């Protein structure tokens, strides 16, 4: 699609102060051609505080009064926030010399006077689009790659999300720098990591993966919500989305960017296998299979192990965890554990005891167990799991031995 010299239709949003300007923009742009993807109407100061999806937008058009200090402050906030790398076109009426100088200092791409003329608007958008920074060729290869761990659900209600949240919390507590751990919620239908941590995400994992070539470290950092524990959380979509809404390449790019962004990456996956599950797990250093000591869960976990082998992932280190069960006594394993190991074909070495009251209290306050510290046995078990994951990764890399 071409718009008078714009060979690739850019994604353009408009922030305007009145419905009259909104109508004028639509008329000038030609809404039937789809140039304006969204028009928001309201006071500029309020619009500037809303999430604009800046990294997913090619150009933003802003209606502003250049003699109004409030509008200039709002423009400044937009340029310094999520739109820092997005070219901006300002439309205004009767701009003064002082107002134009203000725009020049802000780095605005172009100005369209009002009343808005179609050719002037399209030319300004074309110019702004040409100034958008080129997408990076790839993640920053100067940083060492972080350790990527995926939690795979071996049956419904296994508590994998609780373990993912708290495994990330343990890693963050041990980190040597701020915001060194990322938690990716890739359960596109029922992901709840952000809810467990009482966070309001700006962008979700689906939007970030669908950003395509625009997905880079800056987008990921902007989209992730910061938890007080130091964990950066890329949340699941707010509403259930089709699991095939993402392709394997998009998922693989997210993992590659994430492992360059953070020293440790924890991934919470949906229980069902998707077209991109293999791509995610293939990029992981360690897979943690979470199950419970019930017949249905053990058999579901066995199916997951069989699927991993069928997908060519048998060589990826697998750490099995039985959730909500006290560790066996020091001498000898109960017959129940032995039977489960026979069904699974792998040893069960990690057990997380049940403490529903303490864990629920932590979730209700958005805290990790590292912060809450009331469920000490559970926290100790998660800390042991973190050590086992690190040992498995070292063993795979040939720099240590498996635990």
Automatic annotation (TrEMBL):
The keyword Phosphoprotein applies. One of its GO terms (cellular component) is cytoplasmic side of plasma membrane. GO terms for molecular function: ATP binding; ATP hydrolysis activity. The modification 4-aspartylphosphate is found at residue 63. Residues 1-129 form the Response regulatory domain. Coiled coil: none annotated. It comes from the Bacteria. Keywords: ATP-binding, Nucleotide-binding, Phosphoprotein. One of its GO terms (biological process) is negative regulation of cell division. This is Pilus assembly protein CpaE. It comes from Caenispirillum bisanense.
């Amino acid at each position: 699609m071409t718009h008078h010299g714009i060979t690739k239709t850019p994604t353009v949003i408009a922030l305007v102060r009145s419905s009259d300007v909104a109508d004028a923009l639509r008329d000038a742009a030609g809404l039937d051609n789809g140039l304006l993807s969204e028009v928001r109407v309201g006071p500029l100061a309020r619009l500037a505080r809303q999430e604009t999806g800046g990294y997913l937008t090619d150009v933003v058009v802003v209606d502003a009064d250049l003699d109004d200090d409030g509008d200039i402050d709002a423009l400044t906030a937009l340029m310094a926030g999520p739109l820092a790398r997005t070219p901006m076109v300002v439309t205004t009426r009767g701009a003064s010399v002082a107002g134009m100088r203000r725009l020049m200092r802000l780095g605005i791409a172009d100005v369209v006077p009002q009343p808005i003329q179609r050719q002037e608007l399209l030319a300004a958008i074309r110019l702004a689009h040409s100034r958008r920074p080129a997408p990076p060729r790839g993640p920053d290869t100067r940083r060492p790659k972080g350790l990527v761990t995926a939690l795979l659900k071996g049956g419904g209600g296994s508590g994998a999300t609780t373990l993912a949240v708290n495994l990330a919390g343990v890693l963050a507590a041990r980190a040597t720098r701020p915001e060194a751990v990322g938690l990716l919620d890739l359960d596109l239908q029922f992901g709840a990591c952000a809810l467990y941590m009482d966070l309001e995400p700006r962008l979700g994992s689906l939007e970030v993966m669908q950003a395509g070539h625009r997905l880079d470290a800056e987008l990921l950092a902007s989209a992730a919500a910061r938890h007080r524990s130091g964990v950066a959380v890329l949340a699941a979509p707010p509403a259930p989305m089709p699991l095939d809404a993402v392709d394997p390449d998009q998922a693989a790019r997210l993992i590659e960017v994430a492992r360059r962004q953070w020293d440790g990456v924890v991934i919470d996956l949906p229980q069902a296998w998707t077209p991109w599950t293999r791509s995610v797990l293939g990029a992981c250093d360690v897979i943690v299979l979470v199950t419970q000591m019930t017949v249905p869960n053990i058999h579901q976990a066995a199916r997951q192990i069989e699927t991993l082998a069928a997908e060519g992932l048998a060589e990826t280190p697998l750490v099995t965890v039985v959730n909500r069960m006290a560790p066996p006594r020091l001498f000898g394993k109960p017959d129940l554990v032995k039977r489960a190991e026979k069904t699974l074909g792998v040893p069960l070495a990690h057990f997380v005891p049940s403490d529903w009251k303490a864990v629920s209290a932590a979730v209700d306050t958005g805290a990790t167990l590292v912060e809450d510290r009331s469920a000490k046995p559970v926290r100790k078990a998660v800390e042991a799991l973190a050590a086992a994951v690190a040992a498995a990764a070292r063993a795979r890399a040939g720099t240590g031995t498996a635990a």
